[in-house]
Design brief:
It holds the Pfam family BSH_RND. It contains four helices and 18 strands. By secondary structure, it is of the alpha+beta class. The longest helix has 44 residues. The two termini are 78 Å apart.
């Protein structure tokens, strides 16, 4: 009897052990299947983590490099180029002599004016002497007339001679002033025979040669062209769609065509009020795209920037630092402009409305609706049309 009871107890114990083993195995299998299902579900989507970083809103443009200032230095007197003191590429300071024009004609004009002045001064001396004599003659005639010893006619003739002598002195003095002005102009023209640089700059063009005659009567002939190249200006073509967000003072990054990684920092210094067609030609075509010139000053102390180079420009309109960032491909926009994303939570796609800040075409700033580290879905991968993700457009 006792043996039978012990036998039955042992059988129940074996049964319980087997039951525990089977239950553990079933639980382990269920956990494995759940994890596998979760992994399979997660593999249906391609995700990106919400991260922190800096984002800039940039407007891209292209343009040409120009010297900040260009001056055409011309001749103000006619004559032959006697000496040319500069060549293309030379650096000059304001006041340096660039060229000399044969000054013989101007020297002769000055000598003639000086001779005229001497003659006018002699004429003034004679007129003053005549005036003194006329004054004395009038005094005598007037006294005699008052004393009754002279005639009225003699007194009047003496007065007329006195007035004539005074006018002669005035005329001689005017002639002297005219001669002095003529000499001053002669000195000015003589100075113009030395053509001087009006600004500090670099010679970028020489239009004449020694021995060539220049005629300043009809127009001011150009001798050389000077450019200030320590600071260059880039004229960037800014599209009509972007001009509304432009303002003077925005920082700019400039990259030269063909100069791999070399970039320059500048500032948007001016924006033309009219389209570039009007700036260039004075008219506008209704059939062409509208662009406005933005002027960007760039330091060129090393001289790498040259007149006429092509540059690509990135104007930084706005910037967000340490912002929450997600790929723009993760964002869905409703017709009313609302933005939302799908966030992967426990292997399921969860719709989330977000507020978007800056965009750069690749990334977008998230102002609200997401936390750093969350996984946003950027692609369905192998998801079926009936997956929890749903359609892209809502």
């Amino acid at each position: 009897m006792q043996q039978s009871i012990r036998s039955r107890g042992f059988s129940w114990l074996k049964f319980l052990i087997i039951l525990v083993i089977l239950g553990s195995a079933a639980y382990a299998w269920q956990q494995h299947q759940a994890k596998r299902q979760e992994a399979d579900s997660a593999q249906q989507y391609i995700t990106e983590k919400v991260r922190r970083g800096d984002l800039s809103y940039l407007v891209n443009a292209s343009g040409k490099v120009y010297p900040q200032k260009i001056v055409q230095v011309g001749a103000q007197v006619s004559g032959e180029i006697a000496q040319l003191h500069v060549e293309i590429g030379d650096t000059v300071k304001a006041g340096d002599v660039i060229a000399e024009i044969d000054a013989r004609s101007q020297e002769n004009a000055k000598s003639t004016a000086e001779a005229q002045l001497n003659s006018q001064q002699a004429a003034l001396a004679r007129a003053q002497s005549t005036l003194t004599q006329a004054q004395q003659a009038y005094n005598r005639a007037n006294n005699l007339y008052k004393q009754g010893a002279g005639s009225k006619e003699a007194q009047e003739n003496a007065l007329a001679s006195l007035n004539s002598a005074k006018n002669a002195v005035i005329e001689a003095q005017a002639n002297i002033r005219q001669s002095e002005l003529t000499i001053a102009n002669a000195n000015l023209n003589l100075g113009y025979t030395q053509v001087r640089a009006p600004i500090d700059g670099t010679v970028i063009a020489v239009a004449v040669e020694e021995g060539q005659s220049v005629n300043a009567v009809q127009s001011s002939p150009t001798i050389v062209t000077l450019a200030r190249t320590d600071v260059m200006t880039i004229k960037a073509e800014i599209a009509e769609a972007d001009i509304a967000v432009m303002k003077v003072g925005l920082p700019v990054k400039v990259v030269l065509l063909g100069k791999n990684s070399q970039s320059y920092q500048g500032v948007l210094s001016a924006i033309d009020p009219a389209p570039k067609e009007i700036s260039d030609n004075g008219s506008i075509s209704s059939s062409s795209a509208i662009y406005y010139y933005g002027h960007i000053d760039v330091d060129n102390a090393e001289g790498f920037l040259r007149y006429g180079m092509t540059a690509t420009i990135a104007i930084e309109v706005d910037k967000a630092e340490d912002a929450l960032l997600i790929p723009m491909t993760a964002i869905e926009y409703a017709p009313n402009g609302e933005a939302r994303v799908s966030v992967l939570v426990n292997a399921q796609a969860e719709k989330r409305h977000i507020e978007v800040g800056l965009e750069d075409g690749v990334q977008a700033q998230v102002l609200s609706g997401l936390q750093e580290g969350e996984a946003v879905i950027v692609s369905h991968g192998g998801a079926s049309p009936h997956s929890p993700m749903g359609p892209r457009i809502f």
